Amino acid sequence: MEMNMGNNGGVSGDEREGSDSRNGKRAWRRHTTRQIQQLEAYFKNCPNPDESQRRQLSNELGLELKQIKFWFQNKRSQTKAQNERVDNSFLRSESERMHCENMAMKEALKNVICPACGGPPFGEEERRRNLLKLQMENAKLREERERVSALLAKCLGKSIPPVHGDSMEIMAPKQRLGSPALDLDLNAGTSDRVSLPFQLEGIPELEKALMCKTAAGAFDELSRLLRIDAPLWTTTNPDGRFIIHRDSYEKLFPRTNHFNTLNARIESSRSAGTVPINALSLVETFLDVSKWVEFFPTIVNKASIIEVLQTGLQGNRHGALQLMFEQLHILSPLVPPREFYFLRLCQQPVPGTWVIVDVSYDCFNEANSPFRAWKLPSGCMIQEMPNGYSKVTWVEHVEVDDKIQTHKLYRDLICGNAAAYGAERWIVILERMCERIVFSFGETSPTGDIEAMCSAQGKRNVMELSHRMVRNFCATLSMSRKLDFPLASEGNNSGVRVSVRKSCESGQPGGMIVSAATSLWLPLPPWTVFSFFKDERTRMQWDILSNGNPIHKLTDIPIGANPANSITVIQPLADKNMLMLQESCTDGLGSLVVYAALDMRTMKAAISGDDPSVIPILPSGFVISGDGRPHNGNRNARSGGSLLTVALQILISTSTSCSSSSSGEFNMESIATVNTLISSTVQKIKFALNCSDLD
After folding, report:
1. What is the separation, in whole angstroms, between the first and last Cα of the chain?
2. Strand, coil or helix: 216
3. For residue range 624-682, what is the model confidence (pLDDT) as tens digits?
4. Gyration radius (Cα) of the chain, Å
5. Does residue 231 have a cis peptide bond before it, meaning omega lies within 30 degrees of 0?
6. Sheet containing 497-503: which strands, arranged edge to edge?
């Protein structure tokens, strides 16, 4: 039985003198301060020592074994009593708080009103009608779920577990690490036609006036962000990026947060660069949505001009104002895109200088917007330079609440810093695209066996075809908003996502196309991974089209000063009629390797001047980036490595009909084949890079 220590923590229950007893009673003696300190320190690490530990303490402190034993018993009892008092106090305060909240909610319910109109709450009749509507929608969803479950059962041998009860989960199940998923998109394509999340039916004049006022205020704020350095901007360590100093900013621009959740955050960044393009031409690129998407295919997935509010002055576009929609992505199906409805205003404050500002605008006046990103005044200043060059200073400033929706693999890259969607990324893409244009009209000639076939126009045709290949590849990776169904797979970091779409568009093979993509982490620097895919000598280790045979590089077209940025035409030695068009590009924030198979006749037609936009092409490839974490030297620790996205596309039928059809018409075995194919490709890549032990 343990004994209480009382108020004197240094007194033991067995601290009595036996030899100095008087009147039959033993005298008490107190532990020394040193003994108590050592016992307390030992108790923190080991509150319940065994016999050998007590014996060691007895020798060190000069105490009897019973004294050591009873001291620890008493100390444990005292600690337990203290903890119970703290817990009781906390529970008592929580109970009082919950009681107060309960009383407040009861009072609020007495005066409840309809949030939409401010009137009295719904009556019993309205409730019945709403309940009936929800039950009908629920029945439709249940039928749809059972239909898809039956289709999956044909391929996988098992269906989705049935849903019990009167309610049904409408949201997609959460994606888990190691739990692959199948995405079905039976009528999707990569059309330039943009489907907006919400539609506007005309904009009232009063609303247009408010838009003009909002854009003008955003222009004033962005102008100050571009003009002022310290204390409004500060640098981060160790990368030295420019970010906004929050206290200084809020003193100049008081505002309320758009999101009120614990995971909401502010991303800010500024970067600058000089690019070989005329300033006015660059301004026109920003105001022409088709050119905007063409220029930034690796970050802008979709864009549309909803309404032109002001066309601007002819000759310099001063005062042009547009209401736009855009969807931004970072080229992984695991990361949900960022969507904005925003105003874009172009101003020319002084000759030779333009400022283009973007700012989010709530077109629908919805308090609970489904969008998880809000663009604060952002944009760029374009300054005319000699010799047709332009200096561009870019500012990105957004409020986001996407941490929960972001997959764990990408959480450090997306939520840990602003690099993924930051100003630096826009600048490096702009520099690379402008450099590509210069090389397309430059005197640099292709090298290799088919050099004689590539005239200046032929080179530009191949570059245009390759650019469309990259743009189509980037568009196929937007799989993050489809329903997920669990599939069986092993050795995968994130699972495989499969999308099925019917294509009947010009520039793509007609028929049913299956796209599969997966993302994984590798303990290697991004440049090492990119060099592996770029090297034609290692291609047979992962490329299914080469079938394990070596390949021969026929020609190489440079598209930038960096030798790694190039368009390559390669040929598997096992098939003299098949060629592969490949584009590789890299910068400080990521790399791309995109390729597609073409026959010799199609390639010659492209080189000789056929319209590249009508040549059918079905790209696959890889996206490589850093993982957003510092390198710690531990190969097995998930830090300082690379994030790799692998995407494959296969034509499974050649039907030319574009009419809608039942989802059961496509071959589910083909989907399983593609899933197996991409899993096999990932395993080959891991083996070749000596990373198989990560499974």
Report:
1. 52
2. helix
3. 999 887 655 554 445 578 999 999 988 887 765 555 444 444 556 777 778 788 888 89
4. 33
5. yes
6. 447-448, 551-558, 566-572, 578-587, 590-599, 620-626, 642-653, 511-522, 497-503
